[in-house]
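# nightly structure sweep
# worker-07 picked up a monomer target from the shared queue
# config: single-sequence mode, recycle default, output format = structure tokens
# input follows
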Amino acid sequence: MPFLDLDGEARELAPETTVGSGAQAGWRIPGKDLGARHFTINLEGSSGAKIVPATDQNIVVVNSQQIPTSGTTLSAGDVVCAGSAKFVFLANKNDARPAASQAARGDWYLVEPASRQAFHLRKRAVHVGRDVSGIVIRDPQVSRHHADIRAEAGGYAIYSSGSAGTLFNGDKLGAPRFFTEGDQVKFGSTTLKFTQTLPAGAKVVEPTEAPEDDLTRRSTMLHQEAIQTGEVPTFSSKTKIHPLLIAALVIAAGVALFFLLR
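# output follows
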């Protein structure tokens, strides 16, 4: 029977094995950033198997490539990454494990070609939007909290969270996607390239706190309108009066009127 190795310990696979962090997983693995039911492995024949993500929100990477929701066939020696866990699929328990790959190591950046800004990805999670602590994009078509870039599966993945939408290599992003060298993401009218290679004259920017200004405080609904109509709406500054202040003014007016009528 085939085995799945995690951190040097090989586990024999059942005809169907569900891996995750929840009680409903056949192989429960806490502390590895896995979903409750992250993926399932179904054995095929004496040494083959098929791996399938439990949902389209669970990223599973085999040999540095994200697998589709329909799954993919595993071969002996394949490296499976999910959450912060790294597995090796083995035909036999004592088979040699593959050497550690150097490809995914090193610094990664999201580079804006126009300004040559290179946002350095170092944290486990980096927020993207016009009002975030992370990568701030001052674009009226960008949501306040537009997307998350997360370190997982041995690399980085993007999750869209804004109502305005995100394009990944030209396609609208629905489910999370795992980055590979050269991938491009578009937030509003701003395009960023995922790469380890800095262009000449690039300015490395560490994601930081979002400043408070008029643009970052604007309603996301207005930016959705801009996308639908193709026009950037104009904004007016309106100050909301606190209900307690209104009540105080009414009471003061009543007291003044009482003394005037005495």
